[in-house]
Design goal:
351 residues, mainly beta, 10-stranded parallel sheet, 3 helices, elongated
Length: 351
């Protein structure tokens, strides 16, 4: 049957009209099922290279490198050579400062300035040897997070009333994580904490810190601080291996972690003071000048599995105990497990 030109045009018009309606509907369905808010993280990382040892390099200081990256991150500053400067990291988020593959920062002899000072930032610091400065690394402030890995902090500068010359300080409710670090030969404390900080230490060595001027400990937990240590060695410090201040909380080891060794320190292996609390496990505490563990006023210690707390009192103090309970309301739990391991103690058994 033949159709007139009018009927053919009418059919075409209806088809076009129908397609015009259906096409947007299909497009809308496709848009609804395609994610549009997933960024590609690789496309947003800013990477800057610093070479402190090459006078022809485009960027020759870490400070100049930091000025080239956005404070919002994520960003990476890769450092080569030996940098003679005091680095200040303030207001950066998702920043990585990394030796490429390793680098050295000489923080100088002015005790007023840390080799690296971090404030109000989230930063990862990796693969450095840090010498000098009033402190090696300082992490300060409630919005500050420092993730420190494969870093040596040594030779900080002591100045009476100015700087204790500590390897690292964590202050004002900040958080720091030390992994595979060496903190050594600082005249002050190895790791110093102020009020209410949270510090984790794993696979690290903290040794030969402190002096007669500071009586510095390997680790000093400030009031209300939380300290977690695993798989580390804390040895040969001038003062205690670890001292916990008022209401501090210390956790040593875990059933799954590598052992901890606390030895050869010039005071107690661990000193608990002012209502502080410790859980001690997977630890060898031996050869310290005074007690292996001293549980002071209103403090509490719980001894879990796999501890060896023997051979302390190397300095011959009048009360030669590996585990010493002070006379003012100190308490313990599971002390029997330590005694079975050969520890000497004056702590009463639990009733």
């Amino acid at each position: 049957m033949k159709r007139s030109k009018k009927s053919i045009l009418l059919v075409v018009a209806i088809a076009l009209f129908t397609g015009a309606i259906d096409a947007p509907a299909q497009s809308k369905v496709q848009e609804a099922t395609t994610p549009t808010n997933i960024p590609n993280p690789l496309s947003t990382v800013t990477i800057v290279d610093v070479d402190c040892s090459d006078p022809k390099a485009k960027i020759r200081t870490i400070a100049d490198g930091l000025s080239q990256v956005p404070t919002s991150g994520p960003s990476v500053v890769r450092v080569t050579g030996t940098c003679n400067e005091n680095v200040e990291i303030v207001g950066y988020q998702n920043l990585t400062l990394r030796g490429n593959p390793t680098a050295t920062i000489n923080g100088g002899t002015d005790p007023n300035f840390a080799a690296i000072a971090v404030g109000g930032s989230t930063v990862s610091i990796r693969n450095f040897i840090i010498n000098g400065g009033g402190e090696g690394i300082g992490c300060d402030g409630p919005t500050t997070t420092c993730d420190i890995r494969n870093v040596t902090m040594q030779g900080a500068i002591f100045s009476q009333g100015v700087s204790q010359g500590s390897g690292a300080t964590v202050t004002n409710r900040s958080f720091a994580n030390f992994v595979n670090c060496i903190i050594q030969d600082n005249p002050g404390l190895g790791v110093k904490m102020g009020l209410g900080n949270f510090v984790k230490i794993a696979g690290s060595t903290i040794r030969r810190n402190g002096s007669a001027a500071t009586n510095g400990a390997g680790i000093a937990g400030g009031s209300g601080s939380i300290v977690q240590v695993s798989g580390s060695t804390i040895s040969d410090n001038f003062g205690p291996g670890i001292v916990m201040g008022m209401n501090g909380t210390l956790t040593l080891g875990s059933p799954s972690s590598n052992p901890i060794t606390i030895s050869g320190n010039g005071h107690d292996g661990i000193a608990l003071e002012g209502g502080s609390t410790a859980v001690i496990q997977s630890s060898t505490i031996t050869g310290n000048v005074r007690f292996g563990v001293e549980i002071g006023d209103l403090s509490f210690a719980k001894f879990e599995s796999s501890n060896n707390i023997t051979g302390n009192n190397a300095g011959g103090v009048p009360s030669p105990f590996d585990i010493f309970c002070g006379p003012v309301y100190s308490t313990t739990r599971n002390i029997g497990s330590a005694i079975l391991g050969g520890s000497s103690t004056n702590c009463p058994a639990e009733q």
